[in-house]
Amino acid sequence: HTMGVKAALPRYELYFYNVVLCTAMLWAARWIFDVSSSNSNRKTFKTSVQPGWYYSGRKMDTADVEWMMWFSTFREHVIFALSGHVIFAKICSLLAPQYRSLVFMVYGMLAVFTSMGWAYVTLILSHCVLLYSISLVKLRWLCFVAGLTTLATFKMEPFISWQAGFVTGSFELRPLLFYGGCGFTIMRCMSFALENCEKKDGNYSILELLKYNFYLPFFYFGPIMTFDKFYIQANNPNLTRKDGEMWNICLQGLLHLGVIMIVAVLLHFMYILTIPSDMKLLKNISDWALVGLAYLNLVYDWVKAAVMFGVINTISRLDHLDPPKPPKCITMLYVFSETHFDRGINDFLCKYVYNYLGGKHDNVLDELIASLCTFGIAALWLGPGWVVFIWAFLNCFGRNFELWTAQFFTMEPFISIEMAISESMSRRIRAVFNTFNFWTIVLYNVLALNSLEFAKLVAKRLLLKGELLVISDQFKCILKSKRVYCPLLHPLPKIPAPPRQTLLLLPSLWTQTSKRQSRDYT
């Protein structure tokens, strides 16, 4: 029952809600700007707040190694590798389009060999051969067991150190590329194996698996595109485009470039990534600044995911593929069923676990089993750890609590009461109740992105002193209109690094305890 969820509201009312929301965010941003400006030379900021653009006269927040790697430190390497892929793919598409998937594979393997060496390529191939052999048995449960066991070898000692020992050298990106490529390889092999189980006649060849796995734009950084979709699109000889499609691709690329510039400017004026790591400073800042920090950290993480996946997706669209859509902004979320930052992982788990076990998602027991299995696999993908377990439990509970609440309110007399009022009023009432849900989503995911201490401090301030912010978000929730059933998934694998060192790679590399608890460069 979704009465009022999509009901239209008067335009002036929506304008009023937007003005209130924007005013609240600008007010919080002003507080964060003041804190950043007055503490730029703080001792605890020295490692992450570095000299920025010369003509800006300000320092820049460089705490996010992931962002700096992509768009500053190794920008030329990324551009060179992806440009080569685009050029070779275009030449092949013009001369021999029927072999383009093979060219994708060859270029990808050469790029991986050049960057990581023959030992790494051999390790990847061994996992591909192992999981391909198991897929020939065509037993779903065996494919899952084999895939998850293999994935666990990259999350637990001593297996993780043993496999990492195959890759040697001083290349700074090697640890990041190692775990990114290995983690996504296992997930792609699982998708291939599960699709092979569904194939009625015969089996897919191992060549198709290698084509799928070594597609360079997806190899290290994702997103995951399930094998059934990739197989159809990569082997489609019809390479015609719809009217205006090329223009849309170019516009998308320019949009991402513009967002990159905007983020770079904002990181010169608001140190939203560094401040949460200084608990002593956090205890002395205003409530608006603290809650604004929590909210903007999630918005930033969404922007980063949207841009990094967006760049990859733009390349894949040039290859006539239809990649997973970018994540949904936290500002547009108010239910756990919509909360996800990586739609590739989300689509993978929904297709093979959540929807497969949950059916129509209208049975409480089936939904509980489906969500437990889904978040159990998510916890393994993120890397076992207490923060990950807490995050998985809270999000799993939130998802199921939504279902229980929805079913409860479809009973009498609640359903009769809602049917008696207008749809627009129903939407307003739902927004009031969803305000709590929205801030619960924020707090649960702040826990994963920052630290337990920061999340506890935000919760304490929000619950005791956050009346004005809650009111502003009641207006925000009224603006939302769509519901889908998808778990929140964002990889946070465990990485064996020395204390106070952080290896970050979206979506494949995160620290075990939190993404931003440790800000030192590796």
Automatic annotation (TrEMBL):
Subcellular location per the Swiss-Prot or TrEMBL entry: Endoplasmic reticulum membrane
InterPro entries registered for this protein in UniProt: MB_O-acyltransferase, MBOAT_fam
Q: Which domain of life is it from?
A: Eukaryota
Q: Can you tell me where the transmembrane regions are?
A: 15-33, 78-96, 102-132, 139-156, 176-194, 214-234, 254-273, 285-303, 368-394, 431-452
**Its principal location?**
endoplasmic reticulum
Q: What molecular function does GO assign, one term?
A: acyltransferase activity
Listed A to Z, the keywords are: Endoplasmic reticulum, Membrane, Transmembrane, Transmembrane helix
This protein's membrane topology, according to the annotation, is: Multi-pass membrane protein
Assigned GO CC terms: endoplasmic reticulum membrane
Q: Which family is this protein grouped under?
A: Belongs to the membrane-bound acyltransferase family. HHAT subfamily.
Q: What is the protein's name according to its record?
A: Hedgehog acyltransferase like, b
What organism, scientifically named, is this protein from? Answer: Cyprinus carpio (Common carp)
